[in-house]
Design a protein that fits this description.
The chain is an alpha/beta fold and 329 residues long. It has two domains: 197 residues, NAD(P)-binding Rossmann-like Domain (Rossmann fold), CATH 3.40.50.720; 107 residues, UDP-galactose 4-epimerase, domain 1, CATH 3.90.25. Helices cover 36% and strands 16% of the residues. The protein has twelve helices and 13 strands. The protein has a seven-stranded parallel sheet with strand order 3-2-1-4-5-6-11, sandwiched between helices. α5 links the parallel β5 and β6. α2 packs parallel to α4. The N and C termini lie far apart (52 Å).
Length: 329
């Protein structure tokens, strides 16, 4: 049996990945410092014999060394997310997303891991000049979260080339599904909208709501992560998206509609995200299987996951995003 390490295992994507990996005849060690992740996300793995959870920060080099001694493959998902807190506190983002990734890659080299799979972000493209956006598009991170995720990706690629460690970086586009992140920070649209729906409050719509996003269902993202674990797929960067793009107004319609409150369009946000997935379709067996409509239906079946999500309104969003408008002009 292969020994797999998953950093960020108690997060949205990490917890879904660990559930899938435990069904693949693999030994899994999941790491999370629980700064963003939730231990409740791992409840389905409580009695799983081939899954071990270790509460640890990826910058704890001593503890990491003990874990990596017997490891074969790494899924590196641990990271701080969201735009606003990355502007307010860039130090913590560099410590986690850059320095943490550097420390992890040193250990991968030291212990001769067979493969590293990195969760990158489509935010590296900034406001793209081309749609759908291919992997060779200009890199233009516009805020610290995007920059630190891109620097983490460069560290992974550099170490992989220098020390001959197979790597794959997956640039995710707007992932959604059950257990999607609902941190205290103002962030992902699904956490905001579903909390508003549960409270029977108006949806806070940025601009006119006609901006579009390449919403990608969690199952398709997990399938991509599993697919690139194949040793034949190495030293690649792939976009992972649905290959389509949908408006925020269409999302609200699928959520059942309701009253809308419009808030100002924000600097640094693209009017569209839309992944060109030609490369991953050509070089792997992966393809997106879940339509946007099917994904929203599955999400609504699990809407109670969002009971504890922060409830945002126009005024609280305005207060939270002051630095966004101040610096991203």
């Amino acid at each position: 049996m292969k020994n797999i390490v998953v950093t960020g295992c108690a997060g949205f994507i990490g917890s879904h990945l660990c559930e899938r990996l435990t069904n693949e005849n693999l030994n899994i060690v999941g790491l999370d410092n629980l700064s963003n992740g939730k231990i409740s996300n791992l409840k389905k793995l409580t009695n799983c014999k081939n899954f071990d959870f270790i509460e640890s920060d990826i910058n704890d080099e001593f503890k990491m060394k003990q874990i990596f001694k017997k490891s074969d493959i790494l899924f590196h998902l641990a990271a701080l997310a969201d735009i606003v807190p990355s502007i307010k506190n860039p130090d913590s983002y560099f410590s986690s997303n850059v320095l943490g990734t550097y420390n992890i890659m040193k250990l991968c080299k030291e212990h001769n891991l067979k493969k590293i799979i990195y969760a990158a972000s489509s935010s590296c493209y900034g406001i793209p000049k081309k749609y759908p956006t291919p992997e060779n598009a200009d890199i233009n991170p516009l805020y610290p979260y995007a920059l630190t995720k891109r620097l983490g990706e460069e560290i992974v690629i550099h170490f992989g080339k220098l020390f001959n460690i197979p790597t794959v970086s997956l640039r995710f586009f707007n992932v959604f599904g059950p257990r999607a992140r609902t941190s205290g920070a103002y962030g992902a649209v699904f956490g905001v909208f579903l909390a508003q729906k549960l409270a029977n409050k108006p949806f806070t719509v940025v601009g006119d709501g006609e901006q579009t996003r390449d919403f990608t269902y969690i199952d398709d993202v997990i399938n991509a992560l599993i697919e690139v674990m194949d040793q034949k797929i190495r030293n690649e960067i792939f976009n992972v998206g649905s290959g389509k793009t949908y408006s925020v107004n269409h999302l609200i319609k699928l959520l059942g509609g309701g009253k809308k409150i419009y808030i100002p369009k924000r600097p640094g946000e693209p009017d569209c995200t839309y992944a060109d997935i030609t490369k991953i379709l050509k070089k792997t067996k992966w393809k997106p299987l879940i339509t946007f409509e099917e994904g929203i239906e599955k999400l609504l079946e699990n809407i109670n996951d969002f009971q504890d999500a922060p409830l945002w309104d126009k005024k609280s969003i305005e207060n939270e995003t002051k630095d966004w408008f101040k610096y991203l002009t």
